[in-house]
Specification:
With 500 residues, the protein is of the alpha/beta class. The longest helix is centred in the middle third of the chain and has 25 residues. Helix content is 33%, strand content 21%. The chain has an eight-stranded mixed beta sheet with strand order 8-9-11-10-14-18-15-16, sandwiched between helices. The chain binds ligand BES and zinc ion (2 copies).
Length: 500
Amino acid sequence: MAFHLLNKDIKSLSGSSLVTFAKTASQKEKPPQLTFPGLADGLALAIEEKSLTGKALETSIYRELNANGFRHVVVVGLGSNAELTHEILRQAFAAAFDATRSLQSKEVFIDFDSVGAGKRDLESYAKAAAEGLVLASYAFEELKSKKKEDEKEVEFHVVSTKAKEAAFKRAFEEGLLVSQCVNFSRYLGDMPGNLMTPEVLAKKATEAARGTGIKVTVWDKARIKKEKMGGLLGVSMGSDQEPRFIIMEYHGAAKNKKPLVFVGKGLTFDSGGISIKPSAGMEEMKYDMCGGANVIGALLAIAKLKLKINAMVLVSSSENMPGPSATKPGDIHTARNGKTFEINNTDAEGRLILADALSYASEQDPELIVDAATLTGAMVVALGNIHTGYFTRNQDLKKKIEKAADASGELVWNLPLVDHHVKDMKGTFADLSNMSSGKGAGSATAAAFLEQFVGENIPWAHFDIAGTGWATGGRVNYCPKKGASGVMIRTFVELAKSQV
Ligand code: BES
Ligand code: ZN
Ligand code: ZN
């Protein structure tokens, strides 16, 4: 699959497949607006029968229509002009991608100019269009022995007379690039646990960083021990697989500019450990490294966009298994910052491996710290697979996050974190317990635990992606129904852009 921007007037082209967009008219009784020449006449019957109305994401495939030199025509609705958003366009382009897959065309031409100019800032729409296409194109087929029939190379041309303008081109390319990074993170997430161990995750991050200017350092078990990362080490003890601590550094600004530090949970398989999980659905716990995968993807995008900031990624990576040396309920370990914790449930392991990563992040004199983790089942109960819940006590960072998520189109929801939650995490025999002594609010108390490892006065936000990291059920058409979503990468990139 390849995606190009083509600086042409669509009317001057011909080919196998065309995608054009329709809008509903401002007055209800009026026919939909179709700008492609002759199409309204050719589809008069469909318009009359109201099977073609132009309403948002209505997708119609007209085979062998032979309109203006195009054999097949796909019409995707955008709704009314006034209500058109970036998210509708992103999904409309994803719908266009899906529809053309069935046409077996080698070349698809997409009529961007039919999106309609008006006073809109078309650059940002070009970016959304590119995102819709690339995000929809993701499929994890690598481990199937037979390739799908329709998997032949398809060239997608987004055609616009605006394509000659540098800002338009740049925005389109940004959309492609960021989405390709999202797809890379999805790939890391979808890889099964036997093929995606901490060692492999570190290798994949190292390979992907090649040529981007990102420096990657990987700490093995001996180094992790030497660095006093008792949380990460403790969680890894029940597994044959050694843990890894992955450090990625990007310098796009002067050395003295404080870095943004992105921390990720890279738990490559969470069986629960001695507090073992029930069998049903346990296979999904290969996704417990999606926080790590997604911060890696975000940094790759930041580096490829050459943003003028300094940024860093820290991923604590381990398996959580019930082997003979595994951490037992009641065991006490010491984190890098010297705080001790008793482990009352070995399944609450994410917070333990993140404790060391957040301590290390705090030592970097960061501008801010943001972490992403599939941390609690309680988050799935609270917000399902629609919003990503996040916690921060920093109002300025909260504003930045809301702005970034607005720009990315990803849905986030701020949840409360107060001193009561901290109190609930006090230990009996150690400083802290990894289980709350209170009832409910499992995501907030987990966040309160993490907070104990963030240095004072450092702006910090924690994103619990347990509900949104994978299997978002096709709520948006550019996210796989079952696989990893790559959630928050686009928001983190927007956050990074706001720091330039
Ligand atoms: N990785 C899980 C959280 C999770 C569960 C993510 C379901 C996505 C879907 C985490 O390590 C975990 O097991 N947390 C426990 C904590 C509890 C024992 C305090 C949980 O949420 O049940
Ligand atoms: Zn767990
Ligand atoms: Zn986990």
